[in-house]
Design goal:
By secondary structure, this protein is α+β, with helices and mostly antiparallel strands. It contains two helices and three strands; from the N terminus they run αβαββ.
């Protein structure tokens, strides 16, 4: 019985592999029409790629914290950590200001 099942599974999965449709890779997802930015775009229109570099950001907060995540039941979250987590997805997928109907993936490395 196990030999027959193995043979049937082999035939089934072999036939399934030949009938599987090929998937196309896309650079963006669009609900309506074509995405605003093509696959070779380097930045959004509202970004200045030759912006001056440098500067410093100093923030001082009195107090202590137990964790960096703002979604905790006990303990004290770091001040300002609620401002970090909403940006997590937006760092990887952009397009909210450009057009809300499109999502373009950008590499951060």
């Amino acid at each position: 019985m196990p030999e027959g099942r193995l043979f049937n599974n082999t035939i089934f999965y072999t036939a399934l592999s030949f009938s599987a449709p090929t998937q196309k890779q896309h650079h963006a997802i669009s609900l309506y029409g074509q995405p605003k930015y093509g696959p070779d775009s380097t930045h959004f229109n509202y970004i200045n790629p030759i912006a001056p570099k440098g500067g410093a950001l100093k923030q001082r907060v009195l107090g202590h914290f137990d964790t960096l995540t703002p979604y905790i039941d006990r303990g004290t979250a770091a001040v300002g950590s609620h401002m970090i987590h909403p940006l997590d997805l937006e760092m990887w997928v952009g397009g909210k200001r450009a057009k809300p109907r499109y999502l373009h993936g950008w590499s951060v490395c």
